[in-house]
Every structure is written in C-alpha cells, then in structure tokens.
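User: Hi! I'm working on a homework problem where we have to compare a predicted structure to a textbook description. Could you give me the structure for the chain below?
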Amino acid sequence: MNESIGRAGGVGAELIVRLDRPANGGESVGRVDGRVVFVRGAIPGEQVRVQITDDRRESFLRGEVVEILEPSAHRIDTPCDAARHGAGCCDLGFVEPGHARTLKGQVILDALTRIGRFSVADLDGIDAGTVASLGDDGTHWRVRTRLGVDAEGRAGMHAFHGSSIITDHPCAAPEPGMVDGLDAYTVTPGADLAVVADMDGRRHITELAPPRVHARRSRPGTRGRTQSIRRGREAPRAQRVVEGDPMAAHRVGDRIWQIPVAAFWQAHRAAPSAYARTVVELLAGVELAAGPEPLVAWDLYGGAGVFAAAMLDAPGDGLEAIGTVHVVESDTAAVSAAERTFADDDRVVLHPGDVAGVAAGLPTPDVVILDPPRTGAGAAVIDVVADADPAVIVHVGCDVGRFARDLALFAEHGYQPRVIRSFDAFPMTHHVEAIACLVPAHREM
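Assistant: Happy to help. Predicted structure tokens:
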C-alpha cells in the first residue's frame, strides 16, 4: 500500500498508517516512506487505512480514516449524532474523554517545546501537560451555540470544512433542550441562529441575516468565494429575536452580566467561573510589592470584564491592594456589557479600542491579564506589555500554537512561565484552554 504514494500521485490514494502522536488541530501523525501523514479520525497507536485528501509533495500528506485496522482501547462510539453525519462539531467524540485530555496535554507540551522553544527543564514543575475537566462527562456542556440554516429553512450544524448544513442530527454538546423544537419557527434560509441558555437555563434565540457575498471578488467553486463568505459572516449583520430576549444573563461570582445573544460569551457553563478563579489563584501566588499607592492592573482583550471583577472581588487573596483595573476591548457589545455591569464601580476604567494602541497610553501596571482571540496577542501587544515591566502577567490562550508563540515572545523579554493551567473547556473537540502565569526572571518571587 505504501507504494501508492509514488505511483498514484497522492490525492485519492489509500495507505496503511500507524499513528504515533497527536497533532494540534485534532489529527494524529504517522509516517509512510519517510513522509509525515496527518490523519483525521484516528487515535495515536492505531493502525488505519487512510485516503489521502491533500498531498504537499515537499512536506506532508493529509488524509481521513476509511478503515480502522487495529483500534485503540480508548476508541468509543461518538455520542454526537451530528458528527457521525459529517458535522464539524465534535471532532474528537470518538475518543474516551479522559484519554482525549491526555492527548490535549501532549499537544500543549509539544507546542511549548517546538513552537515556544522551551526546554524540558523550563517546563519542569509547571504542570503544563495536565488538562483538567470542568466537571462534565463530555456531553451537554454548551450554553452557547451557532447553527446554520439551509435553503429550506431548516437549522443544523455546519458540515466539516463545508458549506452544507447537517439537519435532523443534533450535536451532543448543547445543554438539554437548547436545540429542541426549532422547526416550529420560520427562519430565513442562509441565516445563522445564535442559541444561548442563560444563568437560569432559559433559552434565547437570535437570527443573524444571511451574510453578503461580494460577487465581484469571488467566483463559484473558488477559494475566493469561501473567503468572501467568511468575511460576510464576520461583518455586521441584521438581527431578529426568534425566542426569548436579545440579552442573556450570565452570573460569575456575585456579579451578573447582560450579554447580547449573538455576542461572545464562553461556551462552557463552568468556564467563566473556572478561569476567573484560576486567575485569582495564580495572582495570589505571586508576592506583589505593596506601596503607598494602590496597585494598577490591565485587563487586555478584557471582554465584558470578568477577570477585572474577579481581581476586585477576591477576598483575602492578596489582591486587595489593586485599586484600579483598566479594561481594554475593541468589541462594542462587550464594552457595553461591561458598562452596565460596572456602572457603580469606579475602580474599573473601560477603554474601547485596539489593544496595542490603547495599552501604550495606560498608567504603568503592576499586574497584566491578557486574553486574546484565537489569533493570539502577537509581537506588537507583547512588546507594549513587556515594556511596561509588570510584576506578573497572566496570559490566557485558546489556540495552543499561538499560545506557545506568545509565550516565546514573552520569554524574549525575560518573562518565564511560573505555572500553566489547562482546561478541557471544549469536550469532544480538539480545542483546549491554557492559562499561564509569567514572571520576570530578574525578580525573585
């Protein structure tokens, strides 16, 4: 079978591969005739028959499992009906949840050593490869989901790397009842539905109008059309309330946030509280030099201000010296939510705008928290943060590769990871959330 690479030219060929390690993105990695093969639908240790879907002749192959020849002891039947029928939701649903966390931990360690360029000694004792559960069994953890609507007005999950909508096969991730009975509503073909369960379990649904596709820039069947559709989905779109209210209430600690149904909030119900608690614990483990003036904190990419509230509301954790938190956020919906939540708290100062530009003009911080989007913070923001010389930085990452890259950039400025906590906040998927506490090497903590 291995000879088919040379004879058949790659794409469409079938190979037998033994997988040896997990890759960032949910695939597993093996080698055939010296060439790296990334395989979707496999578990490290398995021997599988793979059909090649992409042949980068100078670098690697990519393929999908067509037959399991020697299954892993950790393989299970996926509980997600949508994923079984081609949806892109629960891409690791076929892996036993505990083992999936083990694989995610291996991916984090690989990224930190390969992309972050940290040595084994650098990572010793910081527990980066342990991924904690948020208390679920892998199903019914989502309180926020986005559904597509097909040409016949039926809602469902988007297909994996495709434009079709998988209907009549529900995903196993949303909380019970969240996606039930949607066929009772008349919705617009081509639209999206934002579905949220609030703090009391009440459902809210908002329809987002179909994205505009700019015909001048794209032709059917081309990559340009796909990119145009993506741009249209990210652009502002008309909204219509289908069920419930335009805002959903979410509680973290003693505060309540009113968040637009179509705006960002953590998908896992337990995630905001777990992350906030972790940030407080990490900061409490660092000795902050108390002076005559209250300490200043930056909360960059601060969203609606959950971390700002966690710092200010933490009783007896050594954070009472923090007097002001400057929250920087570019998303107007998040800023508005923060304004509502902190209307009577003058310790929080909100700064709408681009993080790199705004942060450079803020008062010198003692503490910095940054929670960038999936693209990471990048050099420009990290330069600003490091030049401000805070005593401690807490960096939150939702993409393992970008997280490792950002930590490498901080290391170039002398900041080293003291602790890394990781969470299985997206069960049955390859995604994992990591939170690093960084301190400057020239200071003793």
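For your comparison, note the following. The chain has three domains: 4-75, 111-135+250-259+266-440, 144-248. Confidence is low (pLDDT under 50) at residues 1-9. Good luck with the assignment!
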